[in-house]
């Protein structure tokens, strides 16, 4: 039996996820009108669609800057999309600004995990394994501790893995979740191509 979904609920879900009206309606029907489950369902579907879009070329976009009000730290980011139409879209420009302000504050080293050189990853893992070994725990536990510390290091070092510094404004989402949502709402492959951070004296 299909559940009656109100236009108000569809509108609220659309505002919260940026997904299309029909996608919102079908997600609410699929989850029996449960708003939180519908949000989760749309996120999963959005990420699946975004993964498919990831194969398409992103040759348009913006270079955006952010300078902190004290003038001592700033960032530049290049964010790409597929068409000039989306590059001129305010939602896209706002995302680029939010990424630039995050980069200035958080100072990630890499954009994605793919950019972390294998030798850097191996060196970090060796340090974590040595630290865990010094704690005198069984080998299996040591391995889990080292892997946990590696995950934490990747969260701290990789832009896409980081929760946006303005967590309240962005509902605690990671930069990757924000990127996937924008890709879903624009229907285009969105790529954070590169970033640069500047700090006085560094």
Describe the protein in words.
- The chain has helices at residues 7-17, 21-30, 35-53, 84-87, 90-106, 118-134, 139-157, 175-186; strands at 60-67, 73-81, 191-199.
- With 202 residues, it is of the alpha+beta class.
- It folds into three domains: 7-53, Helicase, Ruva Protein, domain 3, CATH 1.10.8; 60-111 and 158-199, Tetrahydropterin Synthase, Chain A, CATH 3.30.479.20; 117-157, GTP Cyclohydrolase I, Chain A, domain 1 (Orthogonal Bundle), CATH 1.10.286.
- Strands 1-2-3 form a three-stranded antiparallel sheet.
- A hairpin with a 5-residue loop joins strand 1 and strand 2.
- The protein is globular, with a radius of gyration of 20 Å.
- The protein starts with 6 loop residues before the first helix and ends with a strand.
- The model has no long low-confidence stretch (mean pLDDT 86).
What structural keywords apply?
202 residues; alpha+beta; Tetrahydropterin Synthase, Chain A; GTP Cyclohydrolase I, Chain A, domain 1; three-stranded antiparallel β-sheet; 3 strands; 54% helix
Short description:
With 202 residues, the chain is α+β, with helices and mostly antiparallel strands. It has 8 helices and 3 strands, in the order αααββαααααβ.
Number of helices: 8
Q: Which oligomerization state do the chains in this entry correspond to?
A: single chain
Per the CATH scheme, the topology name of the largest domain is Tetrahydropterin Synthase, Chain A
- For the terminal residues, how far apart are their CA atoms? 63 Å
User: What's the CATH class of the largest domain, please?
Assistant: Alpha Beta
Rg on CA atoms, Å: 20 Å
Shape: globular
Helix content: 40-55%
Determine the CATH superfamily of the largest domain.
Elongation factor Ts, dimerisation domain
Number of separate strands: 3
Average of per-residue pLDDT values: 86
How many domains in all? 3
CATH architecture of the largest domain: 2-Layer Sandwich
Helix/strand-derived class? alpha+beta
The percentage of residues in β strands lies in 5-15%
Poorly predicted tracts of residues? none
Major sheet details: 3 strands, antiparallel
Helix-strand topology string? HHHEEHHHHHE
Strand order of the largest sheet: 1-2-3
């Amino acid at each position: 039996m299909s559940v009656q979904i109100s236009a108000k609920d569809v509108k609220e879900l659309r505002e919260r996820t940026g997904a299309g009206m029909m996608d919102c309606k079908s997600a609410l029907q699929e989850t029996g009108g449960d708003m939180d489950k519908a949000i989760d369902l749309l996120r999963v579907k959005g990420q699946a669609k975004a993964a498919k879009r990831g194969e398409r070329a992103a040759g348009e976009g913006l270079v955006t800057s952010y300078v902190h009000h004290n003038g001592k730290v700033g960032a530049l980011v290049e964010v790409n999309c597929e068409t000039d139409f989306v590059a001129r879209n305010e939602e896209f420009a706002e995302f680029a600004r939010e990424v630039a302000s995050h980069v200035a504050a958080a100072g990630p080293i890499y954009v994605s995990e793919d950019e972390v050189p294998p030798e850097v990853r191996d060196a970090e893992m060796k340090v974590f394994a040595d630290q865990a070994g010094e704690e005198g725990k069984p080998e299996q536990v040591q391995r889990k501790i080292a892997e946990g510390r590696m995950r934490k290091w990747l969260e701290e070092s990789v832009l896409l893995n980081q929760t946006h510094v303005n967590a309240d404004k962005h509902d605690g989402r990671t930069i990757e979740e924000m990127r996937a949502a924008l890709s879903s709402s624009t229907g285009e492959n969105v790529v954070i191509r590169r970033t640069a951070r500047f700090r006085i004296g560094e």
